Amino acid sequence: MTYFSDIDNAYRKVSAKANMLYEFVMLYHNYIYAQHTYEAENCNMMEIHTLTYIDDSPGITATQLAKIWHKSKSAISQTIKKLVESGYVEKCYMKNNEKTACLYVTEKGKLLSNVHKAYDVADIAQTTAYLVEHCSEADLDAFYRIIEQYNKLLKSEP
User: What is the pLDDT of residue 99?
Assistant: First the structure.
């Protein structure tokens, strides 16, 4: 019986902090996939960030985006399909390879991408200001170093 008691005590010690991380991940996931309005256009963050990534990397492919975003090609293709149908992105097929579509923003997409960039600058500044009220700059730097290492850890797992 003491083995299970020891495990339970050890679990209680580590789970409190881990639960904060789990809650953050779940809340941020919900935030990313919630609809946001940019210039009267509704997009979730995955869609708008994909659009902006295409704007910043003209000619990128769905396969490349899937690797960057750590998503399946199918999931990225659904996002791209919505962006194409909304008139923000166009596909151009290579002359020698009609299976590979290079992605480009349209004028409408460029405008929305720029609106999003302005929104992100303001939002990140506001978030940082809030965090600095409650944490030191050194705390924030440490947080981002930890996130960087956590990303490396997660990327290295099979």
Answer: 82
**Residue-wise DSSP of 24-41:** HHHHHHHHHHSEEEETTE
- Percent helix / strand / coil, the chain, rounded to 5: 70, 10, 15
Contacts of 22 (CB under 8 A, 6+ apart): none
> What integer best gives the mean pLDDT of the chain?
90
Pairing of strands 89-93, 35-38: unpaired
Instruction: Give the separation between CA 151 and CA 43, rounded to whole angstroms.
Output: 26
What angle (nearest 5°) sits at the alpha carbon of residue 25, between those of residues 17 and 70?
Answer: 130
- Predicted confidence (pLDDT) per residue in 42-94, tens digit: 788 889 999 999 999 999 999 999 999 889 999 999 999 999 999 999 999 87
Positions of E strands within 47-121: 89-93, 101-105
Instruction: Please check whether residue 50 is in contact with residue 76, taking contact to mean a CB–CB distance below 8 angstroms.
Output: yes
